Amino acid sequence: GGDLGMHIKRFGRFTEERVRFYMGQLALAIEHLHDHKIIHRDIKPDNILLDAKGNAVLADVGNPGYDPSCMCYEAYGSEAYMAPEMLAGNGYSFNVDIWALGVSAFEMRCG
């Protein structure tokens, strides 16, 4: 249980296999959101929960971006996980979630 941020703080870096396991589950969750034109905008280890079986669950979809035109302009989320285009304020789309997932994977692997 708990969130991945807590597990990283407590146990340090994860094995490559563990990171791949979580990334696969999270990629499917993000794909589902994007299929419904939803941009999470705040993916980070603290917003990834582990269930009783150790599966990753994407949480805190409290202020998603929804735009059928697939372009948002408001910066939202945790700055350390924001994609450059979000920080620049020139408009962004679904790719910001993939960027944040990559930053999260790096953090899981490196501690």
From TrEMBL:
Annotated Protein kinase domain residues: 1-111
KW tRNA processing (keyword) present: no
Pfam families: Pkinase
Record-linked PROSITE patterns: PROTEIN_KINASE_DOM, PROTEIN_KINASE_ST
Keyword vocabulary terms for this entry: ATP-binding, Kinase, Nucleotide-binding, Serine/threonine-protein kinase, Transferase
Keyword Cell division attached: no
Record-level Gene Ontology MF annotations: ATP binding; protein serine/threonine kinase activity
Name of the protein: Kinase-like protein
Species name: Gloeophyllum trabeum (strain ATCC 11539 / FP-39264 / Madison 617) (Brown rot fungus)
Lineage: Eukaryota, Fungi, Dikarya, Basidiomycota, Agaricomycotina
